[in-house]
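Example record

One chain of 223 residues, shown exactly as stored in the release files.
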Amino acid sequence: MFSRKYVFESKSTRIRRLLVSGAFLFALSSALLVSFIAYIPIYAKMQKGRSAGAFFQKSPDTIAVFTGDKGRIAYALELLKKNPSSRLFISGVHAANSFQTLVEKQANPITGEAVSSAGMQVDLDYESKNTFENVRETVEFLRANPHLSNVLIISSDYHIMRIKLIISHFMHNSKIHFYFDSIPGQYTSWKDTRKLLKEALKIGRTFVKLKIFREEIVLEDEP
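Predicted structure tokens for this chain:
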């Protein structure tokens, strides 16, 4: 009764359809990327709140700070003053620095006064040159000191998600509890916003290498 109809697509409509589909996929990918970039500092803030709750009435066994961006060591030293029983682990120290020279370069961000190093329990890592190595050396330090089970890691907010991802690579079924605190960024300039973009790409690359290809080492050029 009804005959089958065939609809033939012309070259112009096919091109138009592909362009529309491509534009849609590009817009969708861009929206997802922007959303992920915006979520990176939000994620760090959530982790900061979790840490504040965990250490509201107790001190971390270890405060581990990764060098690389401004404010990290000064903030870790301020936390150490409030938690004098904690042990400080500084990862990624330049060979020319000692703990004393690091302290001399730091100042209280509020008063501008130098931070005292008296009575602090400090360990320095001179081996790490990037984030993957920061985590690896921190894990080795903790394995050598099994009594240190509650660890607070300090870095910049854009850095926290990738650090946590790498830790999950090393610490399967571990009894060590990791918490994260961070220096918040402003992201009001292109220079600062570019850090988030670069970090999003690094997070993606790290995830693919560690979780999909199951590589044991991630080579990185910078923290």
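Notes: The chain has six helices and five strands.
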